[in-house]
Amino acid sequence: MGNAVVKIFGMPNITEAEVDPENNSIFLNGTQYHVNQLSWEPPVSGTIYGVLLNYQGAFHRYREQMTHSPYNEPPKAPILYIKPINTLSGYRSPIPLPEDADELEVGAALGVVIGRTATKVKEEEAFQYVAGYTVVNDVAIPHENIYRPAIRERARDGFNPVGPWIIKKESIVDPNSLDIRVFVNGKLAQKNNTKNFIRPVARLLADITEFMTLYPGDVLLTGVPEQAPLVKAGDHVRIEIEGVGSLENTIVHEADYVKGAVR
């Protein structure tokens, strides 16, 4: 059990509630509900920043490529990108498969939600600036180029489901040691652990806030593991992050996509 911040369709404000991440259930007004019994909105409101190659396996996959032009050497700072507001969606919202793509990559990511304005944060004080954690599917069209920002591949409508809630940081003992699992149509398609981060959460926050400010409500995606599962229209995706919760969405053809719909 843990305390969480939720945003349920029909409720005017973001609400605090007790949740059970293991069973994906929530207690509201003394009644326990499974997440599928409610309609969810994304529980976040700030800017969403992604980090490339923060898993050891993902980094080593591109290590040789980084020694050639135009990179010439591995990066010395986190590689960041933004998931704009048009990408944001919630639990069980459909994910559109664009007409110009055959399949999508499932980007299972731990989202770190900022609770205080963070500028030049010291690594040992980083968690003082964290409000909590959430599950994110950093969807992308498969691509190999990491030199230029992959806006066309990562910034499509509905390409960033988040939720179902933000679990408060006190409920997570160590965000750098959480199992992450991806299921496609009920079958395990990927398994990893945040202990394989190149930069743990506190180090990421320190390195990023050295040159830019993060504000309350902003979300930092801590990276996507290597060998992201590929999915097509009709596939159902479930991302589980230990202690945080489970996020479920279904892939639909772009022509059938309706923003805010639940499937």
Number of domains in the coordinates? 1
Topology pattern, helix = H, strand = E: EEEEEHHEEEEEEHEEEHEEEE
Q: Note the beta-strand portion.
A: 35-45%
DSSP, total strands: 18
> What is the residue-averaged pLDDT?
91
Report the C-alpha radius of gyration, rounded.
Answer: 18 Å
- Main pleated sheet: 11 strands, mixed
Name of the CATH superfamily: Fumarylacetoacetase-like, C-terminal domain
Which regions contain 5 or more consecutive residues with pLDDT less than 50?
none
Counting helices, strands and paired strands, the structural category is: mainly beta
CATH class: Alpha Beta
CATH architectural type: Alpha-Beta Complex
* Overall 3D form: globular
- Contiguous helical run count: 4
CATH topology: Fumarylacetoacetate hydrolase, domain 2
The proportion of residues forming helix, as a percent range, comes to under 10%
Distance between the termini: 27 Å
